[in-house]
User: What shape does this take?
Amino acid sequence: MINEKEIKKSKPHIIIELIEYLPDAIVTRTIIKKTTGNITATSISIGEELGQKAIPFDTYVQIIDGAAVLIIDENLFHIGLGEGIIIPANTKHSFKPDNKCKMITTIIKSGYED
Assistant: This one.
């Protein structure tokens, strides 16, 4: 997995152009990273997938190119261009593109101290 530095503040950008597809690779680019959460752009090439995991925070995923299948606690969701979904904290999930795709992931870490 390739990860580039956080993008510059106060500089307009086109979200889909922040990352490129690389053959046989998953590429990530940090948009913003704070102790309370982060936003990441990810591209997944043909044949790649994000294996099952669970994280202790709510995660919002939005597709910005292509489409994918997201499995959350054994429930199957087909997510297309422009669609988003919230993955609940501590929930097992995996992600497989239909072909290739790009997505934005937002993780919120604050609010869990209650």
Notes: The domain at 2-108 is CATH 2.60.120.10 (Jelly Rolls). The beta strands are 2-4, 26-34, 37-44, 50-53, 58-72, 75-79, 84-87, 93-108.
